[in-house]
Amino acid sequence: MTELDPIIHAAARLRITAALATLDTGESIAFPRLQELLDMTAGNLSTHVRKLEDAGYVAVEKTHRGRTPVTYLALTRQGRRAFEDYTETLRSVLGERP
């Protein structure tokens, strides 16, 4: 049996990756908006985003809107592929056909 990606498999990281996968390629979401959508604390979200970033699955862009710092998150090409592979493997484990 093929193993599920342990980076994505953690519940919080799966939720983050799934949410980011709903964005079109090249789109990003502000950190506070994702935090609100997932109902996660800033610290918890930050910790899991860091794991995904270290794996090359999430791109983090820190910028400013006026004088206010803003952090944007997006799936990388590698992250999108990993999520697609993860969902395909999960379907296989569950006995579903593509």
From TrEMBL:
<feature type="domain" description="Winged helix DNA-binding">
    <location>
        <begin position="18"/>
        <end position="93"/>
    </location>
</feature>
<dbReference type="InterPro" id="IPR036390">
    <property type="entry name" value="WH_DNA-bd_sf"/>
</dbReference>
<dbReference type="InterPro" id="IPR027395">
    <property type="entry name" value="WH_DNA-bd_dom"/>
</dbReference>
<dbReference type="InterPro" id="IPR011991">
    <property type="entry name" value="ArsR-like_HTH"/>
</dbReference>
<dbReference type="InterPro" id="IPR036388">
    <property type="entry name" value="WH-like_DNA-bd_sf"/>
</dbReference>
<dbReference type="Pfam" id="PF13601">
    <property type="entry name" value="HTH_34"/>
</dbReference>
<protein>
    <submittedName>
        <fullName>Transcriptional regulator</fullName>
    </submittedName>
</protein>
